[in-house]
Structures are given as structure tokens and as C-alpha cells.
Write a structure and sequence with these properties.
Blueprint: E1 5-6, E2 10-13, H1 15-32, E3 38-43, H2 48-57, E4 62-72, E5 82-87, E6 97-105, H3 109-120, E7 125-133, E8 146-150, E9 156-157, E10 174-176, E11 179-180
Parallel strand pairs: 3-4, 3-6, 6-7, 7-8
Antiparallel strand pairs: 1-11, 2-10, 4-5, 9-10
Helix pairs in contact: 1-2
């Protein structure tokens, strides 16, 4: 068996709490974008469930697109990891209202980079919505425009969140877990 082994889960945010908060966020977003079309740009994998529920609850026209960051190991002697961003296709965002959708904002580095890139491409506006905001881990001065819950748990699974090749993304709630090294 490869991949992280997960210790018992501890529920942190219930399905009902998530659904209630998603509807509240959708109302705020609908009010803020009234009379406009918003392009929701979801960061995969963690944002896919949040995006699906948010899109169904928003009452303004929405265009959905997806991007996937890929982190690579630093080149020998480099100080930081390198990051590549893949779009499902190169979006035409000039003059568009962009809402970057994250499942979890941790350090903020990826979100800050993406928002700057989107602005430089001529977006009319760029805002950030995240289901979970882990402000205690922030490495850049970034504040989401909309957020569902502040969290401090180290490793959360469920509602679309989890590690690559790990189960539990399908849980309808969020739970804290401790990843353990694989046993072969």
C-alpha cells in the first residue's frame, strides 16, 4: 500500500455547517456581482466540491474554469520550491470579473501569485474566496475577500480536501487527521 496512512478522523466541521456557510457566501457573492457575470477559477484538487456547491447557490451568471498548481523540487542550491500552474485551457480574462476559488488558503503564496498573474492579464477585478482559511500559516500579507471558516488543524480531509492518492475526499464533512508514513 502506497501513500499516506491516515489515523482515525476527528470531525471538525459538519455537513450542515458547510452547507449553511456556502449559502451565506453565495448570497454575498451574488450581491457583490449583481448584474455581472463572474468567472470562477477553481484551484484543483481541493476546491472542486466547494466550487460545485457554490456555483449551484450563486444567483448571477457564472463561467467555471480550472487551474492546477504543480510544485516541483528545488534545483540544487535553490532556496524555494518551483511552481508551475496549468490551466485547463488558456482563459481569456481581459475585462472579466475573476473569483479565484480555493478549498484551503494556507501560506497564501499560491493565491497571491495567481491573483497577481490574473490582474496582469487584464482582469477587471480579481477576488479570492476560500472555504477554509488557515491564517496562522500565512507567509504573505493576503486576506481572502470571502472565507467560510478559520481553521488551525494541521491536516484536514473531506469535502474535496485531502492528499494526492488518499481516500476521504468524498466525505461530506471536514475532519482532522494525522498523516503517517506508509508501511510497505
Amino acid at each position: 500500500m502506497n501513500g499516506p496512512r491516515i489515523e482515525p478522523l476527528r470531525p471538525v466541521i459538519t455537513t450542515d455547517q458547510i452547507q449553511k456557510r456556502v449559502k451565506e457566501l453565495a448570497r454575498q457573492i451574488s450581491d457583490d456581482y449583481k448584474g455581472q457575470t463572474v468567472q470562477m477559477l477553481a484551484v484543483l484538487e481541493n476546491a472542486f466540491m466547494f466550487l460545485a456547491d457554490l456555483v449551484r447557490a450563486v444567483e448571477v451568471p457564472v463561467v467555471c474554469q480550472f487551474i492546477k498548481p504543480k510544485y516541483t523540487q528545488p534545483v540544487s542550491g535553490a532556496a524555494h520550491e518551483a511552481m508551475e500552474i496549468f490551466f485547463s485551457h488558456e482563459p481569456d480574462i481581459r475585462g472579466q470579473h475573476i473569483l479565484l476559488v480555493e478549498g484551503l488558503v494556507h501560506s497564501g503564496v499560491t493565491s497571491e501569485f495567481l491573483m497577481g498573474d490574473l490582474r496582469s492579464r487584464g482582469a477587471a477585478s480579481v477576488k479570492l474566496v476560500t472555504l477554509l482559511d488557515r491564517q496562522s500559516a500565512r507567509r504573505v500579507p493576503l486576506q481572502p475577500d470571502y472565507f467560510g471558516f478559520l481553521v488551525d488543524e494541521t491536516f484536514l480531509v473531506g469535502y474535496g480536501l485531502g492528499a494526492v492518492e488518499q481516500t476521504n475526499r468524498n466525505l461530506p464533512y471536514l475532519a482532522a487527521a494525522t498523516p503517517k508514513a506508509s508501511v510497505t
